[in-house]
Amino acid sequence: MKYGSIVVLTGAGISAESGLRTFRAADGLWEDHRVEDVATPEAFERDPVLVHRFYNARRRQLLGGVEPNPAHRALARLERDYPGEVLVVTQNIDDLHERAGSRRLIHMHGELLFVRCTRTGRRYPVEGDCSVSQRCECCEAEGRLRPDIVWFGEMPLQMDTIYEALEACELFVAIGTSGHVYPAAGFVEVAAGAGARTLELNLEASRLGSVFEEGRYGPASEQVPLLVE
Ligand code: BJW
């Protein structure tokens, strides 16, 4: 590859072969849970116990033997060996990119292994379950900790840095994302508008497939190493 800088957007599909469920597949997470019940601020206000239970179960799975797969590792190699800049922007809340070795990484939808205080915003690492009766150190009060996740209706993280990188990149690659959720779904148009080449890697063409200049289809664990080599 011969690009000055590269922005890679990843979605649930890159972690699917590590054993984590995607959202919108027939057996996806949204099949078992209504989005409005577990992934909105209103849901957390209404039923924090249910929301904590949803994220506790996913945290337990992540810490219970899930490992990065060849696609995560290939992206870490790309960042390490590529002469230009590589930024990975992930919509995923798992830590598989960092465990594989990625360092220039933005978790735009938050991180499963952190909770934060709803009053002060202070973040705390969390390795086990979180509950409504837990106290935060900042307020020493119960019930203020929420998963450090960007839910529907909330602002994704580090958007200024992401848009700056999209405007400056020469190659934009989206891996394993369905293109249903904004603002991430709009990144391809921003990058293309700024003159970048755009490439989609997915099992099959996503709803934005025709917006990309090129699509390569197959499992991420095969397509990403092929791209990087
Ligand atoms: C494989 C594979 C394999 C499988 N190999 N591939 C218009 C503009 C802007 C906003 C909106 C808009 N219209 C509506 C909105 C609001 C809303 C939104 O987008 N709604 C849509 C449903 C229409 N967006 C928001 O509310 C966002 N905030 C916001 O917009 O703030 C205002 C703002 C304004 C202006 C600028 C900036 C901001 C927040 C969105 C938060 C999303 N949160 C979630 C849940 C929390 C995290 C969690 O619990 O894990 O994030 S939703 C869920 O979807 C999760 C994901 O990160 C996200 C994306 O899903 P993803 O990764 O694409 O997964 P899937 O399952 O959909 O697809 C998997 C893909 O992998 C498929 O294509 C498979 O084929 C593929 N695949 N196996 C390769 N082995």
UniProtKB/TrEMBL annotation:
GO function terms (MF aspect): histone deacetylase activity, NAD-dependent; NAD+ binding; protein-malonyllysine demalonylase activity; protein-succinyllysine desuccinylase activity; zinc ion binding
Xref: InterPro entries: DHS-like_NAD/FAD-binding_dom (IPR029035), NAD-dep_sirtuin_deacylases (IPR050134), Sirtuin (IPR003000), Sirtuin_cat_small_dom_sf (IPR026591), Sirtuin_class_III (IPR027546), Ssirtuin_cat_dom (IPR026590)
UniProt-annotated binding residues for substrate: 55, 58
Source organism, top-level taxon: Bacteria
EC assignment: 2.3.1.286
Domain Deacetylase sirtuin-type: 1-229
GO CC annotations on file: cytoplasm
Residues that bind Zn(2+): 117, 136
Principal cellular location given in the protein's record: cytoplasm
Keyword match Transferase: yes
Record key words, sorted: Cytoplasm, Metal-binding, NAD, Transferase, Zinc
A Pfam match: SIR2
Sites where the protein binds NAD(+): 11-30, 91-94, 176-178, 202-204, 220
Active-site residues (renumbered): 109 (proton acceptor)
Catalysed reactions, as listed in the record: N(6)-acetyl-L-lysyl-[protein] + NAD(+) + H2O = 2''-O-acetyl-ADP-D-ribose + nicotinamide + L-lysyl-[protein]; N(6)-succinyl-L-lysyl-[protein] + NAD(+) + H2O = 2''-O-succinyl-ADP-D-ribose + nicotinamide + L-lysyl-[protein]
Entry's cofactor comment: Binds 1 zinc ion per subunit.
Cofactors required: Zn(2+)
Its job: NAD-dependent lysine deacetylase and desuccinylase that specifically removes acetyl and succinyl groups on target proteins. Modulates the activities of several proteins which are inactive in their acylated form.
UniProt domain comment: 2 residues (Tyr-55 and Arg-58) present in a large hydrophobic pocket are probably involved in substrate specificity. They are important for desuccinylation activity, but dispensable for deacetylation activity.
UniProt name for this protein: NAD-dependent protein deacylase
